[in-house]
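Below is how a single chain appears once it has passed through the pipeline. First comes the sequence as given, then the structure the pipeline wrote out for it. We keep one example in the README because the format questions we get most often are answered faster by looking than by reading.
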Amino acid sequence: MRLWKITDKGFEVLNRAAVEQEKKLHDWLERDISLISDDLLVIGREVLTDFNKSIDLLCLDGNGDIVIIELKRDRAPRDVLAQILEYASWVDDLPSERILEIANDYLQKKGTTLEEAFQQKFGTRELPELLNASHKMVIVASELDAQTERILNYLSKHGIDINAVTFSYFRDGENKYMARAILIPQSLKETVMKLSKRIPSIKWTAELLKEQIDKIPKEVLRKRVSEILKFALEKDIFAESFAQSPQFSLIMQNTRGKVLAVLLVGTLYAYFGLNEARKYPTDEVRRGFVEDLKRLNLLPQNINPDEVGSGRILKRRLDDLTDEEFTELLKSLERNLVSK
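Resulting structure:
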């Protein structure tokens, strides 16, 4: 990339800045990720994977999907490509509760939580109950060779959500400038995603949920999901979810904080950790809810709510419970979520 300054005498080519400026890019992107995209929220830096390697920046987009940002630095093109694909293989299996822990550990140092930061960043959009339905990869570099561009275009053409952003630095006396170029235009990426038939997120209203519940083949699960939905609507503790798969949330009647996500496949996710404490009217209520879940063998007996960042997927699905246990679960929801 070249940059010209317009003068009275014509055009003057600006000099490229020193290579060491690239070392500062990591800090710049963490402070202002809009240098890459306005639709990103940084949720981690130098995130350690199970392979004992660190992702430069981990982000969420407005749909709750993970975006991996990896800086090329002085590595060979093949090395950085292999690295980001390895990170993607780790992210692919990353559950929502682990993402919440990573994000809240990082964001707590900035005085906020993931839910607060997400709503502040994306406005009216609420944080999806289950995150990481899909993921994207972005390589950041000062320049790319033709071979790397060819490989990235090939992967993107075949439905792999990968892109590259290059930044060039220029000097004009004491003034410094930076220019950005995106390898694969958004219009082309949208066309590829349509061809790959990615499912968009849906706002799951009570009416839509009832339609989906009627389609659940297993009778026990169908009846129990229907009963919880009816209970939530009657007690004014129902909240719509914005997600790809049908689901809804149960909220505290007084604080309106989400404390339980119910998926129509029977999976339950409870928010009860330290970062979720403000959702409960008192800490006694939060601890009481956790103890109820332990008694129903939905949480490990040794779990301590003060040692958990956000929450957990519960150990058993709705259709795994006995009739007596399901009745006790409803009683616990009324005891803990409904105001007296």
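Residues 4-94+132-195 form a domain with the Trna Endonuclease; Chain: A, domain 1 fold (CATH 3.40.1350.10).

See the next section for the split statistics.
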